[in-house]
Amino acid sequence: MKRNNTLFWLLSIICFGCCLQILFLFIFMDPHILEWPDPNNYYSIAKSLASGDSYSIDIENLYRSPGYPYFLSFIIRLVGSNILFIRLVHVGFYAVFLIGVYCLGKEWKESKFGLLLTFVCSLYPYFIYLPLTLYPEALLIFISSWIIYFLLRMVNEFTYYNLFMACLFISVGILARPTYIIIAFTFFFYLIIVKTLLLNRLKVFIFLIIIPVFILSLWGYRNLKVHDHFIISTAASKNLYLSFNENATIYTKSDCPIPEKIQKKLALAKNVFEEDNIYKASAIEFIKQNKLHSFYLASFRIIDLWNPIPHTSTNYSLLKKILSSIPYSMIVLLAFGGFYLLRKESFSYLLIAIFVLNTIANGVFAVSVRYRLIFDIILIMFATYYIYSLILRYKERKLEQRT
């Protein structure tokens, strides 16, 4: 495909995707209101940061990873605190996400595949919706595509530029969600398996693991100096407790009732730090006393995270659940076909490992399905390749018929 034609189609797809997102915003959402508690909290933290106040206007905010609030505060400094304007800036980042998707597809296969991958992503409902919610996924969807792109470039050509850019995006990702360190470790072990040069493995260990962990530790050190507690993550202890207690269920994001004995302990807690320790100690005690049942809960919660009709959407009608699950179900089915066709490529196994390990990490905790959706780009890559192979076969048959 000629370069001018490629640029035309790429810009057309990006404009199409951004228009879909804007239409969705004005038709299915109130563009001036944040519907969910968590985005409102992130918005409050960002406004505080933008005005020059402390991050911890509410001490519980310490248990929210700093990456997205600082990103949001930067946007507020640019366009003000109007929620509509902030969402429109997110639309702009969605365009950059689609550019990253094209670069990823082109690097993996060719420009035509890159265009098809970009088009499929522009139609994927979750990618249209999530950046508008002002959840951290608005940033993480963007980050994920560029991380995978630079990892792929390192596989094809190991340069300091590719290594630095992968380090940069993983560092931002880990500040928004610490589980992103899994990507770095997975890539490091991938290099060991494919027998890459020892020096390159050492560079990867320093740049993709040591540096991001050090940056995250600086945030923990900041909290230690300010609040005498080394906090680097979100409220993992509470999520761990919600995942493993006598009332826990096999479903993700289980809002199970907290037993009375734990409520009494929480009532005596002087601050959120003591509450965090109570949740952590109670969860660990339950796991030790109920090892088999804990394994059962974790295993089925991971399965539920893959469920095309997640149990988390309890406020949805059955019809709405089914309709919202159709795109994901189609992607999963097509992804199996794409992986089968690409089963001889080692990079395919790296992608699957990243997806599966992050699914396990998030599925063990009672987290929302949206934690998994940032890695749906991996499923879409395989699904798109299957569609692309069908198109190529169709063209070959048409050519054979003509000859």
Strand and helix layout:
Blueprint: H1 3-28, H2 37-50, H3 67-79, H4 83-108, H5 111-123, H6 125-133, H7 137-156, H8 160-176, H9 181-193, H10 198-227, H11 236-243, H12 260-268, H13 272-289, H14 291-306, H15 318-341, H16 346-364, H17 370-373, H18 376-402
Helix pairs in contact: 1-4, 1-5, 2-3, 4-5, 4-6, 4-7, 5-18, 6-7, 7-8, 8-10, 9-10, 9-16, 11-13, 14-16, 15-18, 16-18
Describe the structure.
The chain has 403 residues and is an all-alpha fold. Helices cover 76% and strands 0% of the residues. The chain contains 18 helices and no strands. The protein is globular, with a radius of gyration of 22 Å.
Short recap of the structure:
The chain contains 18 helices and no strands. By secondary structure, it is an all-alpha fold.
Which descriptors apply to this entry?
403 residues, mainly alpha, 18 helices
User: What order do the SSEs take from the amino end to the carboxyl end, as H and E?
Assistant: HHHHHHHHHHHHHHHHHH
Based on Cα principal axes, name the global outline.
Answer: globular
- The overall pLDDT, averaged over residues, is 86
Q: Indicate the percent of residues in helices.
A: over 70%
Number of helices: 18
Report the span from N to C terminus: 23 Å
Number of strands: 0
Structural class determined from secondary elements: mainly alpha
- How would you sum up the major sheet? none
Q: pLDDT under 50 segments (min length 5)?
A: none
> What percentage of amino acids are in beta strands?
under 5%
Instruction: From the alpha carbons, calculate the radius of gyration and give it in angstroms.
Output: 22 Å
